[in-house]
Amino acid sequence: MPTRLKDxxxxxxxxxxxxxxxxxxxxxxxxxxxxxxxKRMRELNYQPNFAARSLVSGKTWTLGLVVPDLxxxxxxxxxxxxxxxxxxxxxxxxxxxxxEDPDLEVREIKQLLARRVDVxxxxxxxxxxxxxxLIEEQKTPYILxxxxxxGLDANFVGVDDEAVGALATSHLIEQGCxxxxxxxxxxxxxxxGRLEGYKRALGSYGLMPLPGHIVSLGASGDHRGExxxxxxxxxxxxxxxxxxxxxxxxxxxxxxAMRAILDARLxxxxxxxxxxxxxxxxxxxxxxxxSSVDQGSDKIGKCAADLALVLANRKVRIKSKVExxxxxxxxxxxxxxxxxxAQADSVS
Amino acid sequence: MPTRLKDxxxxxxxxxxxxxxxxxxxxxxxxxxxxxxxKRMRELNYQPNFAARSLVSGKTWTLGLVVPDLxxxxxxxxxxxxxxxxxxxxxxxxxxxxxEDPDLEVREIKQLLARRVDVxxxxxxxxxxxxxxLIEEQKTPYILxxxxxxGLDANFVGVDDEAVGALATSHLIEQGCxxxxxxxxxxxxxxxGRLEGYKRALGSYGLMPLPGHIVSLGASGDHRGExxxxxxxxxxxxxxxxxxxxxxxxxxxxxxAMRAILDARLxxxxxxxxxxxxxxxxxxxxxxxxSSVDQGSDKIGKCAADLALVLANRKVRIKSKVExxxxxxxxxxxxxxxxxxAQADSVS
DNA sequence: TTGAAAGCGCTACCAA
DNA sequence: TTGGTAGCGCTTTCAA
Lengths: 348, 348
Hints:
The structure is a homodimer of 348-residue chains.
Chain A: H1 5-12, H2 16-23, H3 31-44, H4 50-57, E1 62-67, H5 73-88, E2 92-97, H6 102-114, E3 119-122, H7 130-137, E4 142-145, E5 155-159, H8 161-174, E6 180-184, H9 189-204, E7 214-216, H10 226-237, E8 245-248, H11 251-263, E9 273-277, E10 291-294, H12 297-312, E11 322-325, E12 328-330
Parallel strand pairs in A: 1-2, 1-3, 3-4, 4-5, 5-11, 6-7, 6-8, 8-9, 9-10
Antiparallel strand pairs in A: 10-12
Helix pairs in contact in A: 1-2, 5-12, 8-9, 10-11
The structure holds a DNA duplex (16 and 16 nucleotides).
C-alpha cells in the first residue's frame, strides 16, 4: 500500500535503480533528474522499506536494550540517554524488561538476536556467562552495562562500583561516623564492588567492619529493596555497638533503612547517618533528604550508545572496551553532621 | 553468517519450502521429516530472519511507542506493561521519547512509519491533529494514550480525567476543606479534564472556585512541574482567603506545593491539605506522605497493548475504541484531616 | 507429502 | 549518467 521505488520509477519513466541512487545521495545522477525525483518523493511522502533494506544490507539500524526493570529510574534514565544518542544517528531502540528474571532475559536476548539488531546492550540479571556465549556465536556485538561478570571479556560501561563504596564510606567517616555499617545487595558485581569499596575505605582509615555490621538485603520479595532495607536496618540497630552510619546498597534500601531508624526513635543523621546509591529523583522531598552516590546514569547511557554506534559500524570484532564512570557523592541532610561547607550538593 | 533455511535444506537434502513449512508448523509434512528438521534446527540454533519474513508478509511483529518522557514513572510504567503483554504474543516494542517536543515527536512517528511497525501507540505532545492524519494516510493503526484530542476520531486509552479531578476535589471537601484551590497543568486534555472535574465537584457541593484559586503551573522550565508547583503554591498562599486544600495537576507539582507550604510554616494537612495525581513510587517516604489519585498506569498499558494486538491482526479498519480507566484516590497524610477510617490506602 | 517458481522492496555490480 | 540483472531469506501458490 505505501509508495515503492518502483511506483516513482514508473511515474517518472526512470528505472528503480536511478530512484534508489537519488534516495541514497549517490553522486552519479544528473542534477535535473535528481530534482524531479526528490520532488516526487516528497509529494508522495515516500518512506523506504526498512525490511527490504535490512535484507539486502544486513543492517537493521536498530539497537536492542534489555534492562531488569524499566520502572527503576536508573534504567529509565539510561534508556532515555541511549535513545537520544541513537536517534541522532538514525538508529531506533528496541527495549525490553527482564524483570530480573534470568530466563526471561535469555528469551529476550534471543528475540533480539532473531531480529538481527546491530548491537545488544544489556544490564544483565544472569548468574552465569553462558548466554553471552550465545550472543558471541551469532557474532552480534554486545555491551554490558551496570553489571559485569568475572572472566568474561566483554564490552562494559558502568560506574566504578568500588569507588562508589569507598566514596560513600569515606564520606560517612569524614562526617564523624566511627561505626559504619553496610547493607549489601545480592551477589552481582555492583553489590560486590560496593562492598569491596566499603571495606577498602574503612581500611584506609584504620577501621574494620564490626561484627554483624555487614548485613544482606536478602530477597524479601520487594522489588527494589525498600522492605529489605527496613529489615536489614532493624537488625543493625539491635546490635551492640550500634552503627552510627549506614551505607546502603541502593536508594530504595536506604529509604527502608531510614524508616527503620525513625521508627526506632533515633535521629538522622545525628544518631545514625545514611547514604544510599543511585541519587534518584525527588530526594529533596523525602522526610529526611537522602544523601546518595550518583552513578551518572545519563553518562552511562551516552557512553554505551556511543560505543554501540562504533560497534555497529565495524566489520571486524575489536578489542573489548571497558568504561568506568566516576561516581560522586551528593550530600543531603541524611549524612550532613558537620556544618555545611563547600562540599554540599555541588561537589564534582 | 547466521544459519538460513537453505543451509538446513542442503544439509538434509530437502527443499527450502519443506523446512519453511516445518518452521511454521504446517500440517502436510511427514512426521519423520519434521523430526529430522526440528532436530537440526535446534542444533544449529536456527533463528528465522525477521527482515525477510516482514518483507514477504508485510508484518513486522513490532509495536511502536512514543512517550513524552521515559523517566516519568507514569510512562515508564505504561511502557513496561505494554512490553509484557506484547512479548507474550511475540511482539517487540520500539520505544522513543519525544521530550515533550511536538516536532521531535513527529519525526519519531515518521521513523516508526518508515519501519512499518504494526501499530503505533503514542502519548502525544502535539497541539494540532495534523500529524495523526499522516499516520492515517499510511493506514497504520494507532492508539492515543493518556492525552486525547477533540474532534479526532482515534483509538484512545487513558484515565477518565474528569473523574480524577472530581475524585480529588470531593475527597478534599469531605476532609473538611472549604476553599479548595487547583494548580492546573498546561493546555492538554489531561489538565483540562482534571480542571473540569474539579469545577464539577465543587459545584456538586454548592461551592465555587474562589477568585485566584485556579493557578497555572506555567512552563517554568522544570521538567515535570516541581518548581512550577512551588511557585504556584506560593501565589496561592498569598491570596486572601487562603486555600485550605490544593488539588495539584500531578505529583511533582504537589511536591513543589508541599515545599512551599512547609516553607511558609504552615502545616499539612491541618492548614492546607494537598492531593496530587499519579501516585508515584516512594510516596510513603516523603516528608509528608502525599495523597494522590492513582491513574492505573499499568491498566492503561495493558489495555493499550491488548487493543494494539487486536488492531495488528485486523485487515480492515475498525471503529475507534475509547477506553477510560477509572481512577482511585490513595489517601495518605497530606490530606488526612479526619481520623483514619476504613478508607485509607486500601480503598478500591 | 514434497518442491519448483515467483516475488516481497531494495541494493550491488557491471554493462551500456 | 543511466539501467539491466541478480540476489538478500523468506513465504505463497500450485504442480508433481
